[in-house]
Amino acid sequence: MYKKSKNLTVFLFLLPALILFVGILVWPIIASVHHSMYVYPTFSDRGDYVGFKNYVDLFGKQYDFGKAVINALILAALSVFIQLPLALGLALMLGKGIKGERVYLSVYFMPVLISAVVIGMLWEKIYNPIYGLVVKAFEFFQWSGLPPEGLLANKKTALLAVFIPTIWQYVGYHMLLMYAGIKSVSPELREAAMLDGATDGQVNRYVIIPIIKPIIKVSIIFAITGSLKSYDLIKVFAKDAYNCSYKVPSLMLVRYAFHNQGGIASAIAVMMIVLCFGFAILINWMFKERDPYGKK
Amino acid sequence: MAKNNSNTSFDLEMYSVKKTNKFVKALIYAGLVVWLLIDLFPLYYLFTFSLKSTNEITGSNVIGLPKEWLWSNYGRVFNLGKKTGKNPLTATREFFASGGIERCFSNSVFVAVATIVICLLAALMATYALTRIAWRGSKTLNSIFMLGITIPMHIALYPLYVSFSKMGIVKGYWGLIIPYAAFSLSMAIMVCTGFMNDIPKELDESACIDGCGLWGTFFHIIVPLMTPALATMGIYIFLQCWNEFMFASVFSDEAHYTLPVFVSNLKGSNITDWGLVGAGLVLATFPMLFVYIFMSRKIQESFMVGAVKG
User: Fold this and answer.
1) Which stretches of chain A are assigned E, i.e. beta strand?
2) The CATH number, out of the four listed (1.10.3720.10, 1.20.58.1120, 3.40.50.720, 2.30.30.60), of the domain defined by the range A31-294
3) B288 vs A180: CB contact, 8 Å cut-off?
4) I want to staple B302 with a disulfide (CB 3.0 to 4.6 A). Which of A128, B167, B218, B236 is the partner?
């Protein structure tokens, strides 16, 4: 009797969360897998079953999804190899304890709070090929080599132009995570290493970084999945989701979902979830292998 | 603490500690200041061009302070989307919410607050059942919830659009609130679990002995003690909702636009009028930054807690 009422209570406590989780997270995944095997000529159509044709088409010439994935992966690589080291450097400098630490920290974190849409609009102005800040700076210093159509429109520089605002916005976020990790390292460890004659560089390399490795891992996962999901900024920059030189999966997803190609959009969604989970597992695995304390 | 510090510095002098090179130190400060300027400069640029005339922005005065402070740019932002008054963009009124920027602002606030209430209530109740009541399968269910952190919101866009259309809630507040709450849920459960584990189990037990049931314990003991977790998580969810764009642009009509949608519509309407666009961006951004000045510690903490505990 008691047990029954306890089970009921547990169920009632879980009910709101389960409804949200199953209804909005789990069910759409199943629905997406289902939709991805159909073709929908109109929005309300029941659709025709086509098997895996949508996935094959997706990587074909018409949709060129491979390009979008490669773009996202380039952004991810830039994030991991440029943004994160920069964040780590700033965090190490601040974490040592410096005058005005809080001010630096707070200003570095500030861009994280700004909507990516606002940042996109602002940087579009900065990149403007006639009146923008970049062009004016090049004129002022009499440099040359700027593409006349603008950094965003030029095929070679477009991805870099997308990446710069991303760095500007998110370095502060990763810096904050790493800074929190560095601050949690007990000062005795740093002192002990200093007493043994270690330089600052050595302390960072052999004491601090190994301890904050789990946080670096989280940062890497966030940076990669964030790049795979990136939408807001690119949506603001992009004039045409089909042909722009920085198209990414989510841009295609939204484009096709609302142009009567629900099947293709769902296939993209499934690919995105596979990529996100794949990278999360891969990064976790990489950090496990190299962690000497993990092999007990 | 201070005493401890002075002690160690005394000890340090006895040993041969390598002091940081003065040159390196200067370099560190230089690096920090340079990044500080990089962070602030675009915001300065935005603020100044929001107060300039198109002439100044495009030629005579690109990065200086405005020669003439055109606060009227801001007034014109408030006219956008209004049926009355002088509207510079009558032709494109449908781009903007029927009530203009104030309406979008209040839409954003309402959506964020409703999301916080729903998400935190669901997360608290679930966390209580998962960590405080012993039952088989609680660990498994918890790790299933944790998988939700990695699931990108994008996967739900099309399926939810289809089913919400059928249910008739696609262009309205609930079409935003429900997905936002669901996609913040996993993170909220994770953070709540961390905080709830810090509350001693003896409290539950003594409540039980005093004749308090599970519901009573939850509402009288757990919920009041969880306020710090709720504040932290509430701030985090608020900022996520406030800046979300993809769902907001797809799942809302002009009566329900949130601020990011308003901002993105400035682009479609009038590209050449930089002063107007700049004023719109400032109005959408600076209130949040102003709040941040006073709550920086709390806000930073809310972002750290999720990542560090995960």
Assistant:
1) 38-39, 48-49
2) 1.10.3720.10
3) no
4) B236
